[in-house]
Amino acid sequence: MRVVELGASGWRNLSDGQRLSFPGDARLNVLFGDNAQGKTNVLEAIHFLSAFRSFRTSQPADLIQRGAGRAHIAATIASRELTRTVEVQLTRHPGSPTVVAAEGGGVARTILVDGKPVRGTASAFGALSTVLFVPEDLALLRATPAARRRFLDFAVSSVARPYLREASDFQKVLRNRNAVLRARAPQTSTLLLDTYDEQLARTGAVIVERRRALLRTLEPQVQGFFAALHANLVVELSYAADPRVMQAATRAELESALRAGIGARRAVDARRGHSTFGPHLDDFEVRLEGRPAREHASQGQLRSLVLALKLAELVNVERATAELPVLLLDDVPSELDPARRGYLFGTLEELTCQTILTVADRQVVPGLRHRCDFEVESGRVAPVAQAR
């Protein structure tokens, strides 16, 4: 899979009517230029056409250019023998019935795939598959559990399309249960909570099952990448949850464990006004030689582990979909030492995926074959000859 062309109007600081064509023989596409010129805005647009959310802001109004009423982005995608198009339009229009309330800011979102409007993101998800790697990811193993859950959930959804609906079902039940807890109405809440507890256990068991399966799949791949990149040390990935959930082997056992945990916490939940047990609070852990990496690994080992995780995610998508996703790297090479940077680019040459990366100084990128450079200045993107 590769992006053939990207178009943007009213998106961040990109020039109105900007069109960017990626040569078919270019595996590595380097966007370079000074800071605040628009390099990351290009990557953000491509990622948005894949995930339908920004990796930089939760407010879609931030994506629309100042003074503009709308933002429009579109990509032409070559996938196997097919050519497809994905478009998104964000419109400032508080009165619109299509406003996505969860995104806030009075912004209506319209998604089109092959020129036809689609209802919801699930129908459009997968038309463009990407793996994103930003500098913040290098701190993933010492970041918050929420950051690691986001990594897990996006990685699962990239290989299991039903997961979007499954995760949405769980979140809907969770919101409803929390609303009942906040209402604090004893006469009605007991029966409602009984119902929501059952639904939360049922939908939550699916989430845990999917996440654990992903970690089992990624573990040997991460082990292999880490060994080649850093050292042949034992790497283990494990899901982190309540001991009852950890011991459950089947989906039925997971439901039972979640049901028991949710029930045991009901009095606490009622006092606090929200649910304090379930996969929305789970985590995952990376262990190196049997010890938690976030506590005992060196900075270099942590960066190698995250790099191995991202490369494993890339390979996992290829194995599950029979197609390599587009790899988006936002200034990551500049954050790596020469050895890890060299390994990253050497691996990418072997994987042959389309890579689009941003750097301030293109000299940090080796002179690889199948490379195309683009200079980004004041929101304008233009191809240039490679540096000698």
Description:
This protein has 388 residues and is α/β, with parallel strands linked by helices. The protein has two domains: 2-129 and 325-384, Rossmann fold (3-Layer(aba) Sandwich); 142-296, RecF/RecN/SMC, N-terminal domain (Glutathione S-transferase Yfyf (Class Pi), Chain A, domain 2, Up-down Bundle), CATH 1.20.1050. Helix content is 41%, strand content 22%. It is built from ten helices and 15 strands. The chain has helices spanning 39-51, 145-159, 162-183, 186-229, 243-247, 251-264, 266-272, 293-296, 299-321, 338-351, and strands at 2-9, 18-21, 28-32, 70-79, 82-92, 107-113, 116-117, 130-133, 235-240, 283-288, 291-292, 326-330, 355-359, 371-377, 380-384. The strands form three sheets. A six-stranded antiparallel β-sheet has the order 2-1-4-5-6-7, covered by helices on one side. A hairpin with an 8-residue loop joins strand 1 and strand 2. Helix 2 crosses helix 4 and helix 4 crosses helix 6 (251-264). The longest helix has 44 residues, at 186-229. The radius of gyration is 22 Å and the shape is globular. The chain starts with a strand and ends with a strand. The model is unreliable at 96-104 (pLDDT under 50).
